[in-house]
Amino acid sequence: MADNELVAFRERWNQELKSRKEENPLVCASSSSSGDDPGQLGHKDLNKSCDTLKQKESSCTEDERSGGNAAAEAGQPQYVSIAHSLLDGRTSPLLDRIQQEKMRRKRQYHNMTNMCSVSRQQQMQPQRKVKKEEELVDQLIQDLNEVNDIPFFDVELPYELAMKIFEFLNCTELGRCAQVSRAWRVLAEDGVLWFRMCQREGYHQDASVSSSPCWKSTLRDCRNSYRAVCSNWKNRVGCVRQLQFELGKILCNVSSCDSFVLAGYTSGDVRLWNTLHWDLTSSYLKTNSLSANTHPRPHVSHVQVNSTVAAASYEDGCVDLWSTETGGEPIHHYQSPGRIQAFGLSLDSPVLVSATGTKVRLDSADDYGHWRTVCETMLPKTVESLTLVPNRTDQSPLVVLAAGEDIYLLNPQEEQPRTLHSVYGHPVTCLDASNTLSAFGVKRTGWAMHDGGNK
C-alpha cells in the first residue's frame, strides 16, 4: 500500500472514532431519546452496533493486512490498538461496553416500571380496600366450612363420613390417629365413638350418649375394674361382707339379683338388702296377716328376687310378694293347699310360678301392676323343679318343669303342658332353660346301663 493511502486511512479512522465518541458509541442518541419501549430499543441498537462493528472489522482487516507494519511504527495510538485487537479477534473491550449498556438500559426500564406501578397503586387504592374486605369475608366463609370438614391428606370429607370411617378403628388405632393433626385428634376423641365402643365391649348397655361427660375415661375405668376383678380372682383376693340379720336365727334360703339380696329365716322373717348402700340396714318385709298370727310362725321355704319384686313361700303353703322399692306390706298374697316343692320368679318380667305336689300355678302382673292368676294345671307326677324361660317380656310366659323322668313345657295359651323328654328309669336331677334351649341332667340307672352316675 502507498504512503498516501496509509495516511488517508489513518485520518479517516481517527475522524470516525472522534465522531462515535461524541455520539455515545455503540448506541444512537436519537434512539435513546425516543418514547419506545426501552427493552426493545436496547435490542435494536445492540443489533445495529454489532452489524456496524462486523462491517468495520472486515474493512479494517483488509486495509491493516496491507499496512499493519506502518501502523506499528507510528507510536501505537488507541485506535490502532483497537484495530489490532479486531484483527487478532480480541473483542473484550467492546463486549464490556455492550454489557454496561445493557445494565444501564435495564435499570432505566425498572425505574420507569416502578414509577408506573406507584401511580397505578395510588389510583387502585380504594378498589384494593374493597377487595381486601371481600377477601376477609371469603376467608371467614372458608374458616366456617373448615369446622365441618376434616382434611384427609389431599381430600376434604364431611364430618359424618369421617366419623363412619373411624368407627371401624379400635382404641390403639384411634390413639395413633389422634397424633396425626389437630383435626384428626378432635375426631378421634369424639364422645360418640367411645360411647359405641364402650357398648360393644358390654359396658353400660342401658346408658345414652349424654350419661357420661367423657366416655373415653369411662371405658378406661371399666377396663381397669375388669382387670382388677380378673386379677383378684386368679390371686384369690377378695372382700367378704356379712349381711347379718339376727343372731340365733337359721338361714333357710337366699336369692340375689343385680344389687339386691333376699334372705328367709326359720323365724319366718324375710329381709332384703341393697348392696349399693352397705351403710343401710336391711329392709323389713312384713308378712301377711295369716302367717303373722300363727304361733310358732312357719319357716321360710323359698325366696326369689329380681329388680322390681321379691317373693317368698312358707312351710304352710303361703306366698307373699313385695316391691323392692317400697317394701313393707305385701302387694300380692295367696294360699296353696299344701307345701310348695318348687318356686320360681322371672328375672326380667313380673311372673311368679309355684308347684304344690302335682298342681302348678302361674301368676302375672298386668300393665297397671295388678297381679292375677294366669294359668293353673295338673301334671301326672309331682313337680320337683321348675324354671321360667327368660327374655319373654312382650310374649306369653313359658315354664319348663321336671317331674320324675319327664320334662314338660307349660304355655298358658295351650290347654295341656307339652312333653319335652321322657325316658323310663332316668330321673331328672337338675334343670335350666334359655330363650331357645332347655338343659337338664339325668341319673343313669336301669338294666341297659352298665355304668352308674349322673349325666
Automatic annotation (TrEMBL):
Top-level taxon in the UniProt lineage: Eukaryota
InterPro entries: F-box-like_dom_sf, F-box_dom, WD40/YVTN_repeat-like_dom_sf, WD40_repeat_dom_sf
Region (Disordered): 20-47
Domain F-box: 151-197
Pfam families named in the record: F-box-like
Protein name: F-box domain-containing protein
Gene source species: Xenotaenia resolanae
